[in-house]
Amino acid sequence: MSLTPAPASTDVFDLGAEHEQVVFAHDPASGLRAIVAIHSTALGPALGGTRFHPYPTTAAALSDVLDLARGMTYKAALAGLDLGGGKAVIVGDPGVDKSEALLRAYGRFVESLGGRYRTACDVGTYSDDMDVVARESRFVTGRTVAHGGAGDSSVLTAFGVFRGLLAAAEAAWGSPSLDGRVVGVSGVGKVGRHLVGHLVEAGARVVVSDVATAAVDRVRDEHPDVTAASSTDALVAGDLDVYAPCALGHAITDEVAETLSARVVCGAANNQLAHPGVEKTLADRGIVYAPDYCVNAGGLIQVADELEGFSFERAQQRAARIYDTTRDVLALAASDAVSPALAADRLAERRIRDVGRLRGIWLPA
User: Fold this and answer.
1) 221 and 331, same structural domain?
2) Which of 157, 152, 249, 158 lies closest to 197, judged by CA?
3) What is the pLDDT of residue 270?
4) In what order do the strands lie in the sheet with 32-40?
5) Quick one: which of 301, 238, 295, 240 has its CA closest to 272?
6) Stretches in the chain below the pLDDT threshold 70
7) How many Å apart are CA 130 and CA 170, to the nearest integer?
8) Which of these, 26, 76, 115, 309, is most buried using a 10 Å CB contact count?
């Protein structure tokens, strides 16, 4: 395994100016090309999933992992966890390039970081994959139940988003109820599918979209009353009370923010805002935005609980508190006349400042 230096023309210190550590890994024999970004370990070792995605360029992969790692720091802090923020990306098509050799090479790389970064599942990786990674590293969570793990973290991710959505509904309509509300869910993969179940049970009328027809078909087989939009654009253009983006990031563009009929935006996707100014458009139009890293922390809570011996009931109770956290964020936004994203940042930064380790970075014992 070798480390791949960044091109001489790239100032990596500028690219990752906020981050403690960014490391590139390359194992030619298995085809592994990976990047791990550790944003902060002020509250503890960095925990974040491994995303396996066919990025068009290394620059695109680096940009994504830096954004995602920063989000994990704030997510862990806001969720009350004694963990820092990190993320990893593996460059490639998981349907073609994933192999035991590659995952084990990645596991050796994670192990070499000595516990400063602890990995789990993300887009393109699953609990079974983490079992393979764990054959080479002690610093793996999100494993299968058969191997003592928590299993699929999307279960509590969806539950947490649902709890956050109830708080956002209360802010928008005065009651934490979704009965009769029209909710559009874009992306019904691992998390979106579970979220649909919660929404149907709560009495919402659900419309879904996904680039994968099979994912839509599976949801409609499970919930026959769910309807499908012809595309995400058609979904966004429809008559909605709630828009829940649950696919990849940057779903809330200027165009979406200006045309969306929904009164609430609350979904599982990371980095939903295409740029910071989009949130002002949402606020100006009276749309309640529940910050993504606030409401989608259930999966992180689930895999973090695994580190102390997993209890689903305990993890679910912790994830249920996302309702209270979201209420606090929206209340602070209203009282300070700032955006919900800025309010969430302030609460997370306050905790990092108040209880973060004085030495600044986490080192293995």
Assistant:
1) yes
2) 158
3) 84
4) 21-27, 32-40, 84-91, 46-53, 117-121
5) 295
6) 1-12, 15-16, 357-359
7) 38
8) 76
What's the alpha-carbon Rg for the chain, to the nearest Å?
20
Q: 87, 98, 190, 280: which is the annotated catalytic residue?
A: 87
Helices marked H in 113-184 — which ranges? 127-133, 154-173
182: closest CA among 208, 156, 164, 158? 208
Instruction: Identify residue 292 by its one-letter amino acid code.
Output: D
**Total domains present in the chain:** 2
Q: Is residue 365 part of a domain?
A: no
Residue owning tokens 């769910």: 226
Q: Which domain holds residue 35?
A: 12-144
Q: What number of other Cβ atoms are within 10 A of residue 115's Cβ?
A: 16
Residue-wise pLDDT for 77-126, tens only, equals 999 999 999 999 999 999 999 999 999 999 999 999 999 999 999 889 99
Q: Three-class SS of residue 121?
A: strand
270 domain-assigned = yes
My answer on whether 305 and 329 are in the same domain is yes
Residues 140 and 26 in one domain: yes
Written as one string, the DSSP assignment of 97-110 is H--HHHHHHHHHHH
3-state DSSP percent of the chain in helix, strand and coil, to 5 = 45, 15, 40
CA distances from 41 to 113, 116, 119, 176 (A): 13, 8, 14, 35
87 is an active site residue: yes
What tokens does 46 get? 């960095």
d(CA 147, CA 127): 10
Residue 311 resides in a domain: yes
Residue 289 forms part of a structural domain = yes
Q: pLDDT digits over 134-152, tens only? A: 999 999 999 999 999 988 8
**102 and 234 housed in the same domain:** no
Whether the full predicted model's pTM is greater than 0.90, yes or no, is no
The position carrying tokens 């895999």 is 303
Contact 83, 122 (CB under 8 A): no
